Prior knowledge:
- The chain is an alpha+beta fold.
- It folds into 4 domains: 1-67 and 305-442, no CATH class; 74-243, no CATH class; 447-573 and 749-895, no CATH class; 583-738, no CATH class.
- It is built from 28 helices and 22 strands.
- Strands 2-3-10-5-7-6 form a 6-stranded mixed beta barrel. Strands 15-16-20-17-19-18 form a 6-stranded mixed barrel. Strands 8-9 form a two-stranded antiparallel ribbon.
- β15 (596-608) and β16 (612-620) form a beta hairpin.
Amino acid sequence: MAGRWSEAWATVGSSPWRRAPLLLRHRPGLLAAVAGAVAVTAASVAAVPIFLSSVGTGAVELQVAERCPRATGVTRFWQGSLEEVAAQPTDPFAPVAGSLGPTNRWVVRDGLTLGASEGDGQLGVTLLTREDALEHVDVLEQRAGPGVWLSDRAVERTGLGVGDQADLAGVAVPVVGVYRDLAGTSVDDFWCSTADLLLLEVRGLDLVLPPPVVLADPETFATVIEGARVEVVAGRWSAPLAGGLTLSHAEALVPRLACGPGVPTLEWCADGQPPIAEIRGRDFVADPVYAEDDADFVERFLGSSLPFVTERTRAIQTSVGSGIWPVAGVAALAGLGLVVAAASLWFDRRQRDLELLSVRGVSPAALGLKAVLELLLPAVVGAAAGVGLARVAVVWLGPAREIESDALVGGSLAASAVLGASLVVVGAVVARRAHRLELGTPRRAWLALVPWELGLVAATVVSYQRLGEWGVPVGRGAALSRVDVVGLLFPVLFLLTGVALLARVFGMLIGPLRRRSRRWPDPLYLGLRRVARHRAAVTGLVAASAVAAGVLGYAATVERSLEATLELKARTFVGSDVALQVPAGATLPPALERRSTTVVIHRDAWADVGGRVSIDVLAVDPSTLERAAAWDAVFADRSLGELMAGLDAPRAGVLPAIAVGLDPGRVVEVGIVGAGPTRFEVDPTPVRAFPGMSKPNPTVIVAASALAPLDITGGMAETWIKGDHDAVLAALDAADVPFEEQRRVVDVADRAAFLTVSWTFAFMRSLAVVAGALALGGAAAYVDARRRERVLAHTFLRRMGLSRRAHRRTLAVELVASLLVGIWAGIAVSFVAAVLAHTHLDPVPGYRPDPVLRTATLLMAGFAVAAVLLVAVAAALAQRRVDRDDPVEVLRAGG
């Protein structure tokens, strides 16, 4: 036994093995093929922890953007004397300033009166001093100096102006500025922290404006409060989260804010125990109540939803990870297939040397070790490049740019594991081929007769069936959507099945095609013979390029379709872009009036369809509905204009109507509970969906003019306006039109609830980019592997009269049969897969319409055109290299 080990050590310790890592320095094509194969394989796995880090950062950013900065930041309730109001304050959040944005302090006092110094009229107001407040108002008039700022509403009510002396709570103060009133139904990110002072109040059926807010500098505020004989005032400190905060940083911030062990001591900490002070109204009660944990402290004492955001983000990250790890594993297996091809390429290029070593008694295992040593350096470089490629792809296509250092470490460890697996694969492939070379055994042809594609067909069918069992892919609140891994693999399995069947058909047709090609033009004849000779390599390139193009096309199409479906369902639920109530007789600005309509909604209605069922009745204005309502061609087979024209043609005793969810073909009796003559008959025209419909009930749409003779009362009148949501509300505020928003898009599903699904498909797009690099690397390896054969054949064919142009076309035929066919086939199959899958992926099944298909047409068309250009450039470059190579040197070098 010792003798065998000594003999083996003597073999692998000899010169060919010692010099192995440097032997390929003169073969850049082979080095690039190996490095590229390992790079794309490593990138597939390394991308997962990096992408999940991006998911964490993106989820935090998105949830912060959807909330008021005060909600996800921190707010410290404060009370103190008038001297403390006017003094330069100390920031209580200074120890954690790096994780929070600028701290803002404000002090407020309500229930004060405002009037002219010599007048009798008094107006109830709220006095506020807040840092940077004047930078966030629309200034109408001002002058220098200390004093108070009045809103234009307060000026109109009191008659005061800049330069006047105002009587504020019995204290005379100068008016130094006028700003546009902030009261309304919404506020911006700066003012949302004091939204309770600015938002309209609902009192019965009326919308009531809050008291005007008077702005003052701290010194003037203290003077007024002192004159009002108030000794103690209450205020707040508030700080938003810092931008670009990663999930780990946000999670670490929670115990720091709660005075956990080993963190900076904040002013509210007492002996390491964080006290909780109950808040009643705006009064601060000092009796301490201790929190259950850090999260409870931050939520109750600092009024922050940060613990909820971090918990939900971690759940999103986990859910996305459960979906993308298996997909990354499949991609890594495909990448290892390219490593197998690179190892076979090395064997082909070194076959003469290996035959000589084998004749001299070197074992297949030793030859496998030699391959590992020779390919070690490019494999290490490839693994490192894979981590870089993964990071670039995630930063480019991922949810956020900020990547945690731990994620890069995790990606590097994953790439190291791939490196080890790749080297094992290289050694095993070379040892296996060396063993066959040693025994002289041919490959087993019977394997080609085994219909293993049927296994892929079965797996694809199972995956497709799981799509229908996926469930609702949009979460709500703290509940998250889930990604079914088997269903997620459907496009990949569908693509692989299509490619496998295509390869089987190609294998059956290649013989007849070769016989028929003898009368074809020379480039087609020669190209087909080369494709037939290297059938396995060409099939591998077709599969790699088809999967790359197919996964990219499918992921882009399904994600676009899901987003379009979600948006369409939300706009259908709302009825238009904006649905709101305005006081009777209110006049909209002309620009909004031209794209608005009024709809009266009766939710307490019924229809007799062999038994009474609850329905909704929408009374619409056919002349204006089309200009304001959300409409899509999937709602009905007729346009909205045609449907509205039908409502204007009533028949005696029967009202023409549009219906959703009712059986067509017969007149239906409809009633509205408690509203005058409640019964009338309608002749419904069925549609699949209609704007403003409620999700659980069937809906009947009639013309409001047709209901007028029936003297039906009640119902809720809504104004629908088409246009950008925020711009519409801003225009109403500017026109001083009070309103109350009835339904919003976020009532259907907020963006954060959709993250698990959308980001899982975003990762699939990232993998498609990596798969594209894999296909390009495979094409480069294929071209380089046939260099010797191509140079010698070109030299011979040139002597037979074949032109360079004809040979370049021959190269183009080879690449068309591999790359172009694969890419176009992948695009076509991805479209079929998306058509089959999209009906099973309903983001919110309780809302109509059914899922819509929105293909990524521009992306796939651009990819198809880019494939043509790629083939043309690759053929030209390959021909140029053939022209530059010396046949004698190629023969001497063995390739």
